[in-house]
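hey so u asked for the seq, here:
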Amino acid sequence: MATISKKEQQRAVHGSLALAQILRRLPAPKLSLDYDSEADVLYISLKRPQKATTTVELENGGILLRYRGRDLVGVTVLNASHRAE
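ran it, structure tokens below
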């Protein structure tokens, strides 16, 4: 297990609580998170993992909404570790 400073611990807890508040409002019967630390990408699947048919990038960039037909099935967050700062 990695050792992190108190400041990093506080940021991690704050970010986790903020994420939890957002996630509980999503219409997701089955939610899964996967973080690729090497690529710094967070994958959020709102339904069982499945292929998206359409991807839309939000205006601010780095956040991709993944749709299968008209249903939002996932969100991909690029440079995820820099988003909490």
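The chain has a mean pLDDT of 80. Residues 6-23 form the longest helix (18 residues).
lmk if thats what u needed
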